[in-house]
Amino acid sequence: QLVESGGGLVQAGDSLRLSCAASGRNFSNYGMGWFRQAPGKEREFVARITRNSGTYYEDSVKGRFTISRDNAKNMVYLQMNSLKPEDTAVYYCAASVMGSWFPEYNLERKYNYWGQGTLVTVSS
Predict the structure, then answer these.
(1) What was the pLDDT predicted at 19?
(2) Residue 103 confidence (pLDDT) above 90
(3) pLDDT tens digits for range 63-99
(4) Which has the minimum average pLDDT: 22-26, 82-86, 117-121?
(5) Phi-psi sector, 113: left (phi>0), alpha (psi -120 to 50), beta
(6) What are phi and psi of 110, to 5 degrees?
(7) How far apart are CA 114 and CA 33, in angstroms?
């Protein structure tokens, strides 16, 4: 089970940190990702962290967002800085049994477990 938290209403330029709490065993073996779905759009990849803490980002968030994990706490985080109105979306945490890098890491179908999402709204 994955439970996201930390969303909210912020102004452009502000920061937010999203958290994802994972339950179950062997969390450290999973690759973890963040996706988002803006109103009227399809869900898209945001960031991924492998079991060895390798990180990958969608181009529009590179340099602004940072994904991290704390295996001792079964937690994944998404630090979002310099937020823009176009970052407004429901953000989802996802877990993949494929813990290492693989070519299609940005595809939804490669993730096995999903949270319910947390809404981030960025006003201009």
Answers:
(1) 98
(2) no
(3) 999 999 999 999 999 999 999 999 999 999 999 999 8
(4) 22-26
(5) beta
(6) -90, 0
(7) 9
Three-state secondary-structure class, residue 33: strand
121, 11 Cβ separation under 8 angstroms: no
Residues 92 and 114 sit within 8 Å (Cβ to Cβ): yes
Residue 74: partners with Cβ closer than 8 Å, 6 or more residues away? 21, 22, 23, 24, 27
DSSP state of 84: -
Alpha-carbon distance of 72 to 74, in angstroms, equals 6
Over range 18-34, report the average pLDDT.
94
Locate tokens 């960025």: which residue?
122
Q: Which amino acid is at 113?
A: Y
Q: Match 């490669």 to its residue by tokens.
A: 110
Can you tell me the mean pLDDT for 11-17?
98
Query: 103: which 2 tokens?
Result: 């070519």
Q: Residue 92: exposed, middle, or buried by beta-carbon count in 10 A (0-12, 13-18, 19+)?
A: buried
